[in-house]
Amino acid sequence: MLKLAIQKSGRLHEDSMNLLRECGIAISNGGNKLKTEASNFPLQVFFLRDDDIPQYVEDGVADMGIVGENVVYEKDRSVKIVEQLGFGSCRLSIAVVRGEQYNDIQSLEGKRIATSYPFLTRQHLEKNKVNADIHEISGSVEIAPGIGLSDAICDLVSSGSTLLTNGLKEVETILYSQAVLIRNKALDAAQQEILDKLLFRIHAVKKANNNKYILLNAPNDKLQEIIGLLPGMKSPTVLPLAEEGWSSVHSVLSEDEFWDKIERLKAAGAQGILVVPIEKMVM
Length: 283
Ligand code: PRT
Ligand code: ZN
What we know:
By secondary structure, this protein is an alpha/beta fold. It has three domains: 2-88 and 178-208, Periplasmic binding protein-like II (D-Maltodextrin-Binding Protein, domain 2, 3-Layer(aba) Sandwich), CATH 3.40.190.10; 90-177, Periplasmic binding protein-like II (D-Maltodextrin-Binding Protein, domain 2); 211-277, Alpha-Beta Plaits, CATH 3.30.70. Helices cover 27% and strands 32% of the residues. It has eight helices and 15 strands. The structure holds phosphoribosyl ATP and zinc ion. The site of zinc ion has 3 residues, from loops.
């Protein structure tokens, strides 16, 4: 049995639950439970505050956890990052009052900075030999300059709209972050085996989410050119259509080259292009 800690509620909860679901692991999240057990996988899931997860994993109360890299690095616990999970993306940034003169990080010398990330903020300032006064507050950091508590803040940013509505501008990025799977440093062989099984499934889900299945019709005289544009797992599947002189081509395209490839396929004579999501992909 492996014990996995995930966020009880908040920004990472839904995506963490979804990931387990996509891995075919059936867990219930009924009521106000602290823990639950999967019915079809040797996994126990603990629902905790994200800030506590690194400590629980270090202590071995949980064997693994899903938490933002920002929390892992801020808490500075002795745990191992196993896998980046591709959700919960954000950055930890310093922001100052808009309209305020800011040249470089030296502009923060002697200033007051409010943050919920005192460890990472201090580390960054020390690295740049800047002396500033760090005020640790636990929430609503963005209002600190407005109420006269600080001159600047260091907080998580994703769209940037919170900074904008509070009259702040982002000036330094300390860290780019996403949700990661962390593990205790000393798992035994049986636990390692379950972790390997889980990772195998996570890789298949991540791969599938990054790829699309594409079906299109191609006139036979354009077939070579169209096939040349498609990677496929081995090579594209080509099937004759009922209509003489036409073929159906099936392949897999990765998300990042998707739009570029679609345009080129159309230009090359492809018609009736269908794109469908892939649920799992095992190479
Ligand atoms: O209750 P618990 O302690 O478990 O939750 P929490 O309130 O501490 O954390 P939560 O749920 O807010 O965030 C959990 C994790 O989500 C964080 O540790 C990050 O790894 C990740 N994440 C991703 C974010 C954001 N994006 C984010 N935008 N966490 C917080 N924010 C906040 C930010 O603090 C600021 O207030 O959103 C605001 C900025 O958003 P934009 O879009 O306006 O820039
Ligand atoms: Zn938290």
